[in-house]
Amino acid sequence: MAAEVICRALRAVKTDEGWKAAGEEFLLPRTDAVALQRGRYLTIVDDDAAPAPAAAPAVEPKAKKGGAKPPAE
Question: Region Disordered: start and end of each range (predicted)?
Fold first, then answer.
């Protein structure tokens, strides 16, 4: 059996033991936990067992339409 890791639900998660509510901590096999973490259902509490976070893509700020308004007279 794969090593188990401590997880915290970010939203309701159904496990073999039943439903876990948001904020509840529980154990899961590491492979299951990694898959659910990628789907943002839980976070892995064991830092040593957690996969490295993926680098976030760079996001350019959107330009506002219409430009700046002229000063009021």
Answer: 52-73
